[in-house]
Design a protein that fits this description.
Blueprint: H1 3-10, H2 28-31, H3 43-54, H4 59-71, H5 73-85, E1 91-94, H6 101-115, H7 120-127, H8 130-133, E2 135-145, E3 148-157, E4 162-165, E5 168-174, E6 190-194, H9 208-232, E7 236-240, H10 247-263, E8 273-277, H11 285-303, H12 318-354, E9 365-368, H13 376-388, H14 395-402, H15 422-439, H16 448-480, H17 485-495, H18 502-521
Antiparallel strand pairs: 1-9, 2-3, 2-6, 4-5, 7-8
Helix pairs in contact: 3-4, 4-5, 5-11, 9-11, 13-17, 16-18
Organism: Cedecea neteri
Protein name: Mu-like prophage protein gp29
Pfam families: Portal_Mu (PF06074)
Length: 525
């Protein structure tokens, strides 16, 4: 449904009303229950599910993927970490470049609309089902609130409720069951998030296409382990009967053996005998090794590594854990960018269109803040050093790097606790001038040693300046050639450990030694 038809459908609706949704026209969608193809899963069954999806029938594959997430605790936990990490990121609606005051105001207003939408956080989690399935469809229920058209509810529809067009397997459509080609989705009625874990048509782009094999091998291993426990976990029960016993007596003996297996006791003929034999010890390690390998594969595929979810005490180090955490942050940043693009096109744009605020050439965009925390102490040092050599630092750049927002109009601005008043500075200046004038009067009784001590600080300062200039001259030349504050930041961090301050250390040591000797030699004067 295009924008023109949407407006026709909305005309005449009263205040505080809600629009019907597209899926409401097809009640069979709600009567068609999910299947469970993972029951008795084997290689052939997996192949049939995947092949059907490649041919355009997504039902079996979608049901299998849903079973995987429900039945595999490790897979669910790792995928949940990746999904819920997005909820920790702040978001904002940014105006276009070189925005006018009206565009800035519109972006702030649209951000307020989105923040107040009911169920927005849950909808983000629903959208990220696309990580596993390759796509996720959330239906928007529109309503008029306070003179504005707003989403009043978001409805996640299962992946099995959709199909793809016969001649375009990237065109997702509603699987109504009445048309082999499906029903085209209403424009502005859906948020269709595509999350390509790998290249290919939408049915082949989900991460579960990769994970299904580790899920299969893990389940086969668990099934074999259960059979192993059945064989080796309990002693064998052998019934012995005399050759003279008839068929009825033998049946009672067999029944007694089965009762012992279930209840720990039973009744057998007096002539019969039950012998318990402990089986030879078996090894369960191979089954657990297979399960452990499958779970590591799942962690690598979902989070990019294993050290943020598992630690074996052998290869787990702090440095490797940090590397794996950086990879995990890269995945989070990528997820956030893809979700932001979908929300901008399929939520923010309809909001502006339906409320008459849309300008295709100057449309705002929704963004998540994926920046990692910065070392504020090091940042302040870099800014101070850059300002000392005359490099200008933009307020906007500093605000973005530090995370400290620029104060808005009318906001209270923090000030230093100790602020000198002009009157106090004038009084201090006058007092200092009188003292300096008194100190500047030559003292006739000063001896030669005292004069040398008095002159030593000035000489030391001159030599220290020369040593510092020699040490910093190569670094200052590189800083002046830097192209940006970021480049200065990286340059200083790299050069700091290699600065040669030996001359300064020797100079300070000599000055302390000379002052100590002179003080001791004239202590009695």
């Amino acid at each position: 449904m295009d924008i023109k038809n949407l407006f026709k459908r909305l005309v005449g609706r009263g205040e505080d009303t809600a629009e019907p949704v597209q899926s409401g026209d097809y009640p069979m969608l709600y009567l068609d229950h999910q299947g469970h193809p993972s029951t008795g899963l084997d290689v052939q069954k997996v192949y049939l599910c995947l092949k059907a999806a490649e041919d355009g029938d997504l039902v079996l594959q979608s049901d299998l993927f849903t079973d995987m997430e429900e039945r595999d605790g490790h897979l669910f936990a790792e995928l949940s970490k990746r999904k819920r990490a997005l909820l920790t990121l702040p978001f904002a609606v940014k105006p276009p470049k070189d925005a006018t005051e009206a565009e800035i105001t519109l972006a702030a207003e649209a951000e307020g609309w989105i923040r107040n939408l009911p169920g927005f956080s849950e909808m983000l989690i629903d959208m990220l089902d696309a990580i596993g399935h390759g796509f996720a469809c959330v239906e928007i229920e529109w309503g008029q609130r306070g003179g504005l058209w707003m989403p009043v509810a978001f409805h996640k529809r299962p992946a099995r409720a959709f199909t793809v067009a016969m001649y375009n397997h990237d065109d997702i459509r509603l699987n109504t069951g009445t048309n082999a080609d499906g029903e085209p989705l209403w424009e502005t009625g859906w948020i269709v998030h595509r999350h390509r874990a790998k290249s290919g048509p939408v049915a082949q782009s989900g991460l579960f296409r990769v994970l299904v094999w580790s899920y299969l091998f893990k389940n086969l291993s668990a099934r074999d382990w259960a059979q192993f426990l059945n064989l080796y976990g309990l002693p064998f029960r052998i019934g012995k009967y005399d050759s003279s016993m008839d068929e009825k007596a033998r049946s009672r003996l067999l029944q007694g053996i089965r009762m012992m297996a279930r209840n720990g006791g039973g009744i057998i003929p007096k002539e019969a005998e039950i012998e318990l034999k402990v089986p030879a010890p078996g090894q369960s390690a191979p089954f657990f090794a297979m399960v452990d390998w499958c779970e590591k594969v799942q962690s690598k595929a979902i989070l990019g590594g294993t050290l943020t979810s598992q630690a074996d005490g052998k290869t787990s180090t702090h440095a490797l854990g940090n590397v794996h955490n950086e990879v995990r942050h890269d995945l989070l940043a990528g997820d956030a960018r893809m979700v932001a693009e979908t929300l901008t096109a399929q939520l923010l744009r309809p909001l502006l269109v339906l409320n008459g605020r849309y300008d295709a050439a100057r449309m705002p965009r929704l963004e998540f803040d994926t920046r990692e925390p910065v070392d504020l102490e090091m940042l302040m040092k870099v800014v101070s050093w850059a300002q000392a050599i005359g490099m200008g630092i933009g307020q906007q750049w500093f605000s973005e790097r530090s995370g400290i927002p620029v104060p808005g109009e009318g906001q209270v601005v923090l000030k230093p606790l100790s602020v000198r008043s002009p009157a106090g500075e004038a009084t201090l200046s006058a007092a200092m001038q009188l003292r300096l004038a008194a100190l500047s009067v030559p003292q006739a009784s000063a001896d030669a040693v005292q004069q040398q001590l008095d002159a030593a600080p000035l000489a030391l300062a001159a030599q220290a300046n020369q040593a510092a200039e020699a040490m910093l001259r190569p670094l200052l030349e590189k800083i002046r050639a830097a192209s940006s504050p970021d480049a200065v930041y990286a340059l200083l961090a790299e050069a700091y450990p290699d600065l040669q301050d030996t001359s300064l250390q020797e100079l300070v040591g000599q000055a302390v030694f000379v002052a100590d000797v002179m003080g001791q030699s004239h202590a009695g004067d």
